[in-house]
Design goal:
The complex is a heterodimer of chains A (about 575) and B (about 600). Chain A has helices at about 5-15, 15-45, 50-100, 110-125, 125-135, 135-150, 155-205, 205-210, 215-270, 275-290, 290-315, 375-385, 405-410, 425-430, 440-450, 470-480, 500-515, 550-555, 560-570, and strands at about 335-345, 355-360, 365-370, 390-395, 400, 415, 425, 460, 490, 520, 535-540, 540-545. Chain A is of the alpha/beta class and about 575 residues long. Chain A has two domains: about 1-315, ABC transporter transmembrane region fold (Up-down Bundle), CATH 1.20.1560; about 335-570, Rossmann fold, CATH 3.40.50. In chain A, the strands form three sheets. Chain A has a six-stranded mixed β-sheet, with helices on both faces. Chain A is elongated. Residues about 575 of chain A have low confidence and may be disordered. With about 600 residues, chain B is an alpha/beta fold. Chain B has helices spanning about 5-15, 15-50, 55-105, 105-110, 115-125, 130-155, 160-165, 170-205, 205-210, 215-270, 275-320, 405-410, 435, 455-460, 470-475, 480-485, 505-520, 535-550, 560-565, 585-590, 590-605; strands spanning about 365-370, 380-385, 390-395, 420-425, 425, 440-445, 450-455, 495, 520-525, 550-555, 570-575, 575-580. In chain B, β1 and β2 (about 380-385) form a beta hairpin. The longest helix of chain B is centred in the middle third of the chain and has 55 residues, at about 215-270. The chains are: A alpha/beta (about 575), B alpha/beta (about 600). At the A-B interface, α2, α3, α4, α7 and α8 of A face α2, α3, α4, α5 and α8 of B.
């Protein structure tokens, strides 16, 4: 249950709507019970030929109760749904704020998309917790108790029978179903995950499977997995159905008990016969009110599962100490030193960086090159304190990064990541991320420098920049970086989707902007590197070569060969059109 | 040509027996419901009105308990049938989807989002569950039992029966009204909900950018704001739905009230009714209305479910239409979402000339081949080409010029819309897939690593049982020995999804190892375009040369080295073969070719 703590906290904040929903549900339930009891009583009364006015009073009462029931049910639905949606919004925000300090650490390297989608889905599925798990039992128990109080006015034993019925339907039956459900539920989830993984693999590997003649074999495997899943789902649903049937039977049994006990008590003389029909109607109705209890276990299971995964996500990451007080000055040139730095991603089996020692003097311009997956991006992530090295030390201006406040490093850096995030809004909104004021002329000039002359500041940008091409996104990200005043430039393949002529223009502006600053550029093309103070060649997490362009070309080592290879590439990608 | 039936009706027809069962059980269930009410009324009448002794009621009580048990069992039985139908329908649908996927042509399989297809196979099929497990049983119950109850009430007391008969239609009518007013709006909301969770997902994805630019707090407020905005919009829709439900419940309550009032009047004023009958009717009325009300909920579930089935249907149809017509005869009868549970295997080419064994060496040719993915889309035509055994062919051209399509056509992964690919002089379509693919090796730019052991992933190349030493040999030839030594369980280490991740270069080399194990007579090679490590680059060149020494090799080329060593180069442009010849010939006579070849150098020295 402790997993649901976040939820409980959020529920307390919505207490007003929740209270209203519960009151509405209670009145609706009670009105239903009274309505049918009154009908039963009325019919019984007719046997004694009462005066007509009692009848009129009773029938009016029945009608009013009917309307009251419908109206309070309306209120219950309205408030409970409003509470649910408010809860959901609170959960989203609270989760977002909890995830902020954990990024990108928890996102690992692979499967981060899957994890994020799961978080979103899990938050969604928590909405059932309140609507179907948390508050229905409260209403059921309240209505039951009221009915018990009511019946106790007629017979102590009768009331006892209702209490027994309440305990059985509200606790014993759902408990039994939950027990069965726990066992099966895991199996359904596993089988489903298995099938999902196999289908995904089947589709991704389709061409290879076809050429290697494995399609039929895989198809049969999938069919078997699919049939197994359907069977497991049926077993789980059967368990739930058994619970529902058990609930129905218990409610019949109690009504039957009311009848049997009633007839005994009437013959005994301790109960007036006129109440018998009323009590039977009451028992039939009150159990109908308890019907949601039968489906509760399924939802309970689901929300607990979601809550558990969410809290695991949040708690899996180590609790970060509050940021140290060290501040990186924005006005000073920045030098960086890496000393025996290693890093390994949690879900990888070999290190991404192995024992790297580097020195970036203040004002130096360095290019990092190497095959994809060699660890180039990891270096930038470490410098930005987005990840913590598994070994070694990083010093910025002589201060260990552990002693620096991450936010101050970010303020001092102009960063372009491989994947930049854009918001719904205008180009201007997306340029002014750090909320500083610039006149429009400055912004337009920046757009020109980033080779985006066709974009105006008021052009719309869709969610995640979906209406921009990859090249435009990169240029916009560069413009955004150029607006910042940091003295450290960290650029991760900033122009990989830009043609090489445009790239040349951009780099010319960039070099002018960063003339006195430290610049680290990861690049995928080996062009324009002649001006760099140093080129680092990285392969499999190690620095295999370092030197200026001329030095490396003269050495005829790794870089030289890469360069030769690049010249081998023929212009078939349409890049050079 | 028979008009295709919807997938739903087809699935339903397959379960006719279960549906008959459902109807039968529902009939008995109706009888049990009525009997329960009758016995209850009887018992109360005896105790309360006739003041009979306990022992005389005991028999009634006993039968009542039995009826209650039977009633529970019967509804349980109906539920079980529903679950059974759902399980069968889901398995059948998924089988059809999987079979479609397995028999789809390569472009269809590779086109579009894999995520979407997985979601249809799993989510949409699962969503269809409630149509069978809930909607059908409830609808059949609602069709049978109320009529039975109505008949009984009519036989007992015509007036109550009339009231019930007149008020009943209001319920479905109201349900339809509720549905109509909220349907479009709520569907719109659901898309919004999807968009909205998309926004949340987007914020999570952009978290790093947000952090770096110090905008997390701002984004958090944004999430809250849009979340609450969404809540208010949704509540607007829900309010309409709840108001309608309120009206509906009022109608039911009012109807019950009218019946009760009428009963009381009959009892008291006209004295034309016995207590027994009145109480019986009073017990039956709520059962009657709640059955009718149930149809509403079932209808709602059923609609969502049917939407899911339609999604499955669309996918089945989509794959079919996306497929190029193959042997002329399959284009006739069965289009659309018919699930062809037992027909699917017949589509797998029944008769074939006896060409199961391919003669070596292989010669490959093309005769007036035309290809189109869909009408009005990219067109490819290759009038006539012939490749001698052992020749090395390179295909070059800008991206989107049709290089890969041509390679797929030669590989038999695509069927030409017109014309033939000829192997040893016979159309490729006449060989069995297995006999042809036995001799083909295809090294793609992004080889797929299956979850399994390292050795399994290499062995998949051979299609036969191979010894460990053969696997090791192939791995060594592809330069994977060092990697195998680095893996903690060597060749038995799990790789792929959920296992050890391999780098791009290692995947390429693994694909080479597969080819080494297979030693195919035809090698199709999609040369990598992007940054591999130097080791892989070197191994790629050496190994490919070795593999191709005794084979026909067709390469989609991106390296100067490759085209220089090719016997023949095919230059593609905009879906057509511009020219073909040796490197020297083409340099001399085709300016576009010279420009293309030079581009890498230009980029390099710019």
């Amino acid at each position: 249950m402790k997993e649901l703590a976040i939820l409980t906290k959020a529920m307390i904040q919505e207490r007003k709507d929740i209270a209203l929903a519960i009151i509405g549900g209670f009145i609706a339930g009670l009105a239903g019970v009274i309505l049918f009891s009154a009908s039963g009583y009325m019919i019984s009364q007719t046997v004694f030929a009462p005066p007509l006015y009692t009848l009129i009073v009773l029938t009016s009462l029945v009608k009013i109760l009917g309307l009251l029931r419908a109206a309070s049910r309306y209120a219950e639905r309205l408030y409970s749904h409003r509470a649910t949606f408010s809860l959901l919004s609170r959960l989203r925000t609270s989760f977002f704020s909890r995830l902020v300090p954990l990024a990108p650490g928890i996102l690992g390297k692979k499967r981060s998309g899957e994890l994020l989608a799961r978080i979103v889905g899990d938050v969604e599925s928590l909405q059932h917790y309140f609507l179907r798990v948390a508050y229905p039992p409260v209403i059921v128990v309240m209505v039951f108790l009221a009915t018990v109080v009511f019946t106790s006015a007629f017979s102590f034993w009768m009331a006892g029978l209702f209490v027994l019925g309440m305990l059985t339907t509200a606790f014993v039956v759902p408990g039994l179903v939950l027990l069965g459900q726990r066992k099966i539920h895991g199996r359904v989830i596993r089988q489903r995950a298995l099938l999902s993984a196999e289908v995904t693999e089947f589709l991704y590997g389709f061409r290879d499977l076809k050429v290697y003649g494995q399609l039929n074999k895989r198809d049969h495997q999938l069919q078997r997995a699919s049939a197994a899943l359907a069977a497991e789902q049926e077993t789980a649903a059967r368990n739930l159905l058994r619970g529902q049937s058990l609930h129905t039977f218990v409610s019949y049994l109690i009504s039957w008990g009311v009848l049997a006990l009633g007839s005994y008590l009437i013959m005994d003389g301790s109960l007036a016969g006129v109440y018998l029909a009323m009590l039977i109607m009451a028992s039939l109705t009150v159990f109908e009110e308890a019907a949601p209890m039968a489906t509760l276990p399924a939802y309970k299971q689901e929300s607990e599962h979601a809550a558990k995964r969410l809290s695991e996500t949040v708690h899996a990451a180590p609790i970060l100490p509050s940021q140290p007080s060290g501040v990186l000055s924005v006005n000073q040139g920045i030098s960086i030193e890496l000393d025996g730095v290693s890093f390994q991603y949690e879900d990888e089996w070999r290190p991404a960086l192995r024992d790297i020692s580097l020195h970036f003097p203040a004002g130096s311009k360095t290019a990092i090159v190497g095959p994809s997956g060699s660890g180039k991006t990891t270096i930038i992530e470490l410098l930005l304190k987005l990840r913590t090295p598994t070994g070694g030390q990083i010093r910025i201006n002589g201060v260990l990064t552990e002693e620096l406040d991450e936010a101050s490093i970010w303020r001092a850096s102009n960063v372009v990541l491989q994947q930049s995030h854009f918001f719904r809004g205008t180009i201007r909104d997306n340029l002014l991320l750090d909320e500083e004021e610039y006149p429009d002329e400055v912004l337009s000039a920046i757009l020109d420098k980033a080779q985006l002359p066709n974009k105006s500041l008021d052009d719309r940008v869709f969610e995640k920049g979906e209406n921009l091409s990859d090249g435009e996104k990169q240029r916009l990200a560069l413009a955004r970086a150029m607006l910042r005043k940091g003295r450290l430039w960290l650029l991760d393949e900033p122009t990989s989707s830009v043609d090489y002529i445009t790239e040349k223009h951009i780099f010319r502006h960039l070099m002018k902007e960063a003339a006195n600053d430290t610049l680290i550029l990861i690049c995928h093309r080996l062009t324009g590197l002649e001006e760099m103070d140093c080129i680092l060649v990285i392969d499999q997490g190690r620095v295999v070569e370092a030197g200026t362009y001329t030095e490396l070309m003269e050495q005829q080592g790794y870089f030289y060969e890469m360069k030769l290879l690049e010249q081998e590439m023929i212009g078939v990608n349409g890049e050079f059109r | 040509m028979k008009r295709k039936r919807g997938l739903i009706s087809e699935l339903r027809a397959a379960q006719r027996k279960s549906l008959v069962f459902l109807a039968g059980i529902s009939l008995v269930l109706g009888a049990a419901i009525s009997a329960q009410a009758a016995l209850l009324a009887e018992a109360v009448e005896k105790i309360f009105v006739q003041r009979a002794s306990f022992s005389s009621v005991a028999a009634v009580l006993g039968v009542l308990l039995a009826v209650m048990a039977v009633r529970t069992l019967l509804s349980y039985g109906n539920g079980r049938i529903g679950l059974y139908m759902a399980a069968r329908a889901k398995t059948a649908m998924r089988a059809a989807v999987l079979r479609k996927l397995a028999h789809a042509s390569v472009p269809v399989a590779l086109r579009g989002q894999t995520g979407g297809k997985v979601s249809v196979t799993l989510d949409a099929v699962d969503e269809s569950d409630s149509y069978f497990s809930q909607y059908l049983p409830r609808m059949i119950e609602a069709a049978v039992i109320p009529i039975l109850i109505l008949a009984i009430v009519f036989s007992q007391h015509v007036n109550s029966g009339l009231i019930m008969l007149i008020t009943a239609p209001f319920i479905p009518i109201f349900m339809v009204l509720v549905g109509l007013t909220t349907k479009n709006k709520s569907e719109e909301k659901f898309t919004q909900l999807a968009d909205f969770s998309g926004t949340f997902l987007g914020s999570l994805q952009g978290l790093v950018s947000l952090k770096l630019f110090g905008r997390t707090h701002h984004q958090q407020q944004e999430i809250e704001r849009s979340s609450l905005g969404y809540r208010d919009a949704t509540m607007g829709i829900l309010r309409i739905a709840f108001t309608n439900t309120f009206m509906l419940e009022s109608i039911v309550m009012l109807s019950i009230g009218i019946v009760a009032l009428e009963l009381a009047l009959q009892l008291l004023v006209f004295k034309s009714l016995s207590f027994h009958t009145a109480f019986l009717i009073l017990l039956l009325v709520p059962e009657y209305y709640s059955l009718l009300k149930n149809t509403g909920t079932a209808f709602h579930n059923g609609r969502t479910s049917m939407g899911a089935v339609r999604k499955v249907e669309e996918m089945l149809t989509g794959i079919r239409e996306g497929e190029a017509p193959t042997d002329g005869d399959s284009g006739t009868g069965k289009t659309g979402g018919s699930i062809e549970i037992d027909l699917a295997d017949k589509a797998d080419k029944p008769e074939r000339p006896n060409l199961d064994v391919l003669r070596m060496p292989l010669s490959i040719g093309m005769k007036d081949v035309r290809f189109q993915y869909a009408p009005d889309s990219f067109k490819l035509s290759a009038s006539s080409l012939a490749f001698e055994p052992g020749q090395h062919i390179a295909i070059v051209g800008k991206s989107g010029s049709g290089k890969t399509t041509l390679l797929h056509l030669i590989a038999g992964l695509l069927k030409p819309t017109a014309g033939e690919v000829l192997v040893n002089g016979y159309p490729l379509a006449q060989y069995t897939e297995a006999s042809w693919f036995d001799h083909v090796g295809y090294i793609t730019q992004h080889p797929y690593i299956f979850s399994g052991t390292f050795a399994d992933n290499i062995a998949i190349g051979s299609g036969r049982d191979v010894t460990r030493s053969e696997v090791v040999q192939a791995a060594e030839a592809a330069g994977l020995a060092a990697l195998a030594a680095e893996l903690e369980q060597g060749y038995d280490t799990f790789v792929g999804e959920g296992g050890r991740g391999l780098s791009g270069g290692e995947k390429q080399r693994l694909a080479l190892a597969r080819a080494f194990l297979k030693r195919p007579a035809v090698i199709l090679f999609d040369e990598p375009t992007v940054g591999l490590d130097l080791q892989t680059e070197r191994i790629l060149q050496q190994s490919i040369a070795e593999l191709a020494s005794k084979a026909t090799m067709i390469t989609v080329a991106h390296r100067l080295y490759t085209i220089r060593h090719a016997n023949r180069i095919i230059v593609m442009d905009n879906g057509a073969i511009l020219d073909s010849g040796s490197h020297k010939e083409l340099l001399a006579r085709l300016p576009q070719y010279a420009e293309m070849v030079d581009a890498g150098r230009k980029g390099g020295f710019a």
